[in-house]
Write a structure and sequence with these properties.
Structural class: mainly beta
Distance between the termini: 38 Å
Order of helices and strands: EEEEEEHEEEEEEHE
Radius of gyration: 16 Å
Shape: elongated
Strand content: over 45%
Number of helices: 2
Number of strands: 13
Helix content: under 10%
């Protein structure tokens, strides 16, 4: 199974640009006390950028924090964060986050990160599967129909 890299391949973005919003926010998964949502999908000529946020309360917040933050005794804690799998044009693979940040305490937890799919779907569909079993978030799959992608290169906004 191929793996979607955490960051775009060199040159995938061309000059530094702001991507085009091709899908708005959507709830991706919800279980009691925990949920994950997609802020939007940004399209770039070389792929799709997906900022995703997860939030937990109560016992799920405590479970998420235990698996994210270092243990007090200094022993390494294996991290098990939000699991994301992407499908573009029939190619399915796990995706790695770039720049994940987390914060929280005993009663609330929040994690945000960005995921990258290094291709634009020919059919305009992106399948996103998320889950975090160790924190109580059951796996769920969402199929997104993206706005037209044929002129993405003309619609991105350069930052130079």
């Amino acid at each position: 199974m191929p793996r979607w890299p955490a960051t775009p391949a060199p040159g995938a973005l061309g000059p530094v640009v702001l991507g085009v919003v091709v899908h708005g926010p959507v709830l991706l998964a919800r279980s009691p006390g925990i949920a994950a949502g997609l802020r939007c999908v940004f399209a770039h000529p070389g792929g799709l950028h997906l900022p995703i946020v997860a939030r937990a309360t109560g016992v799920q917040a405590e479970a998420a924090g235990r698996r994210t933050f270092p243990r007090r005794d200094g022993e390494p804690q294996p991290w098990s964060g939000l699991l994301v799998t992407l499908t573009v044009d029939g190619v399915t693979g796990p995706a790695d986050p770039v720049g994940p940040t987390s914060s929280g305490g005993a009663d609330s937890f929040r994690s945000e990160g960005s995921w990258w799919a290094g291709a634009l779907p020919n059919d305009g569909r992106l399948t996103v599967t998320v889950g975090w079993p160790a924190a109580g978030l059951a796996e769920a799959t969402t199929v997104l129909q993206l706005d037209p992608l044929d002129d993405v290169a003309d619609r991105v906004v350069p930052l130079h």
